[in-house]
Amino acid sequence: MSYADAILPEYDRETANTRKVLECVPEDKLDWRAHPTMNTIGWNANHLVEIANWCEGILKQDSWNVAPVGAPPYASPNLRTRAELLARFDAGVAAGRQAILEVKDEELSMPWSLLMGERVIFTLPRGDCIRKFLLNNTIHHRAILTVYLRLNDIATPAMYDAGS
Length: 164
Known about the structure:
The protein has one domain: dinb family like domain (Four Helix Bundle (Hemerythrin (Met), subunit A), Up-down Bundle). The protein contains five helices and three strands; from the N terminus they run H-H-H-E-H-E-E-H. It has helices spanning about 5-20, 40-50, 55-60, 80-100, 125-150; strands at about 65, 110-115, 120-125. A three-stranded mixed sheet has the order 1-2-3. The two termini are about 20 Å apart.
């Protein structure tokens, strides 16, 4: 079984579930936070969107430097409408799915690094990055966002049922 055959059912299920949650994000509560030290609904929604856009880079590049020396640092998106969030999310999911279809199984053991300037934050095999840095991180932040929505009396969709 190829990597794509193994991971795409989970990728498709988790990205579909994430999209369902993003569809519930209220534009009038993007700045709401559960506590002054916590991120906002808008930050979490934008973070889910940016995570979806990392898949292609993980599979097609050797590293990502979020603060390259002599260049501007990476800036997270700050999308302010549900339509913008969903459009950017959908584009990232489609590009990631295509990258998964195109990656050769032998490339999955190649190292990928997250860098901050000259500092290596971590290095993992590409396949592990998809699981740990992309899918697990998505599930984590999606859970936070669903709690935030519930605290604002916003219904959240079912994530897993007998058919998924």
